[in-house]
Amino acid sequence: MSDNNPCVAHRGFSGKAPENTLAAIRMALELPYVTWLEIDVQLSRDGVPVVIHDYSLDRTTNGHGRVKEMDYANLRRLDAGSWKSKSYRGEKIPSLEEVLELAAGRAKLNIELKNVGRPYPDLERRVTELIASKGMREEVVLTSFDAPTLRRLRDSAPDFRTGLIFDARWSSPVRPMQQLGCSFLSIKGARLNTALARFLTQRGAEVMAWTVDKPESMRRLADIHSDIMICTNRPDLWGETFWRQ
């Protein structure tokens, strides 16, 4: 068994199953070394938190237009699997509630709130209330690229752990993390270096590197620090690289 570099399944086992679907979540949870899932959450027009990455429906479903323009009942009629493979025809866009219930007690969740530009003024409240109702505050971290989203979470739900998703090429995430009250950093794997990883981990922060699908890149991150979480579309390759039973 590996005690190092936790494995995070990016949008579930998205290398093989359609991303952000229950099929991808279930496939990831079947692997004994997957301890985290990373998913993306938006709101339907009638305010239901749903798990989908793009603001548009076009890439990963047979629907068209924007997620926020369609009621939950209509989103559920869409096919979110056939784009990946005919064997996944009929796979649905999951609700966040379904994913929470599936993952409870089995894996922690890194939930990215897709709220840049605030297309969903009620997103933070809807998500935090749902998580709290399931008693799962301790099993999730809420992350975002969007500083205003993280500020609203800090002010309205201070008992939730939050994380900054950081992709700026020439600056450091340390100051914005401190200003936003974040204890979690999600950063592109190629941009993570030893000094930053050590600085943050020594101060109790968690660091997740994304999206890492090559064994040599996984090993490079493991050599930097054993606590770096490795977020991958291919958790099976993480297993081949690190898992010892």
CATH architecture of the domain at 7-43 and 109-242: Alpha-Beta Barrel
Distance between the termini: 4 Å
Low-confidence sequence ranges: none
CATH topology of the domain at 7-43 and 109-242: the name is TIM Barrel
What does the largest sheet look like?
Answer: 8 strands, parallel, barrel
Based on DSSP secondary structure assignment, what is the total number of beta strands?
9
By secondary-structure content and strand pairing, the structural class works out as: alpha/beta
Instruction: Give the overall pLDDT as a whole number.
Output: 96
Helix content: 25-40%
Radius of gyration: 17 Å
- The backbone outline, from C-alpha atoms, is globular
CATH superfamily of the domain at 7-43 and 109-242: Phosphatidylinositol (PI) phosphodiesterase
List the helices and strands in order.
EHEEHHEHEHEHEHEHEH
The CATH class designation of the domain at 7-43 and 109-242 is Alpha Beta
Cross-sheet strand order for the largest sheet? 1-2-4-5-6-7-8-9
Enumerate how many helices there are, as a single number.
9
Strand content: 15-25%
Pfam families: GDPD
InterPro entries: GP_PDE_dom, PLC-like_Pdiesterase_TIM-brl
Protein name: Glycerophosphodiester phosphodiesterase
GO biological process, one term: lipid metabolic process
